[in-house]
Design a protein that fits this description.
Layout (H helix, E strand, L loop, with lengths): L1 E4 L8 E11 L2 E14 L2 E4 L4 E5 L2 E6 L2 E9 L17 E8 L6 E8 L4 E13 L9 E7 L2 E8 L2 E8 L13 E3 L2 E3 L3 E7 L9 E12 L2 E17 L2 E7 L3 E7 L6 E4 L2 E3 L3 E2 L2 E8 L2
Parallel strand pairs: 19-21
Antiparallel strand pairs: 1-2, 2-3, 3-10, 4-9, 5-6, 6-7, 7-10, 8-9, 11-12, 12-13, 13-16, 14-15, 15-17, 16-17, 17-18, 18-19, 18-20, 20-24, 21-22, 23-24
Protein name: Heparinase
């Protein structure tokens, strides 16, 4: 996970220009959190660096044995065909000729336009990394949303990942909390994801991602808690709990675990296992 704040260079037009990169399995999710001073049209520019072909809602890019699929998911899908009038609210695309970086020729890049005029938008694009240019078995993604959240449900190779983006935690609230309920999860996190085996209940998830949150609960069970907002990746496998934590100079947190783990590894370092009443307690974590 990487967060880039690009507000400064474009602050004459933008009051919020954040880009998140979340890499899960073979997909990089690019989340743009944008707010402008005035309403206008948003567009996303793509320089493919290879041969590009639009297929339905996807842009396929191939360069030799390397290939990716660019799939816009929010705020709208890419219009399914070139008859954009049949999809008046979806992103429409335009090919643009521009000089190459060395100014010795021209190249084609692609502009995805949002027809609506707005001053705030969430852009979510999946960049699917294909193992071969001919790979057909790609992740299946469902757009989902509820009260104060948008997200995805991703199905791939027997696993399901639910990704949620908290619409209240994007800076629009200054003095009120940003708690949401999403599919039974309660959190103040800006974004979170849970991964579980197909056929299992989400509560059985052993993999969690929390982006700038202080708690994740389900019913009366706490899956994550902290007195400060943190960035966390949690994964349990082979009886070991692996944690990546960031966000504060010194961090204390609790994590749900059905059994006492054999070992706890935090930011690559083995730490003492402190286990009480179904919770692994981690304290004094310092970013070095």
């Amino acid at each position: 996970y990487v967060l880039a704040n690009g507000t400064g260079p474009v602050s004459n037009n933008f009051s919020r220009n954040f880009r998140h990169f979340l890499w899960m399995d073979n997909v990089i999710y690019m989340i743009d959190d944008l707010k402008t001073h005035d309403v206008g049209h948003f567009e996303w520019l793509w320089h493919p660096g290879g041969e590009a072909e639009k297929r339905g809602i996807d842009l396929n890019i191939t360069n030799g044995n390397s290939s990716v699929v660019v799939r816009p998911l929010y705020p709208r899908l890419l219009a399914k065909s070139d008859f954009v009038h049949d999809y008046p609210e979806d992103l429409y695309w335009e090919e643009v000729e521009a000089p190459t970086e060395d100014l010795k020729g021209t190249e084609t890049y692609y502009s995805f336009h949002l027809p609506a005029k707005v001053d705030r938008v969430k852009g979510l694009t999946a960049i699917i990394l294909k193992e071969t240019p001919d790979q057909k078995d790609l992740p299946y993604m469902e757009r989902r949303e509820g009260k104060d959240w948008i997200g995805l449900r991703i199905h791939y190779k027997g696993k399901i990942t639910d990704l949620y983006i908290n619409q209240l935690a994007d800076g629009r609230l200054m003095h009120s909390n940003s708690w949401i309920e999403a599919d039974g999860w309660f959190t103040d996190a800006y974004m979170f994801a849970v991964t579980y085996e197909a056929g299992m209940e989400p509560a059985g998830s052993k993999e969690h991602f929390i982006c700038y949150g202080s708690a994740l609960r389900r019913g009366d069970v706490s899956f994550f808690s902290s007195l400060a907002k943190l960035f966390v990746i949690q994964k349990e496998e082979n009886g070991r709990m692996k944690l990546w934590m960031d966000g504060q100079p010194k961090m204390n947190a609790g994590f749900r675990s059905e059994k006492r783990p054999k070992a706890v590894v935090v930011n690559g370092k083995v730490t003492p296992v402190v286990y009480e009443k179904g919770t692994v307690k981690v304290s004094g974590v310092v970013i070095e």
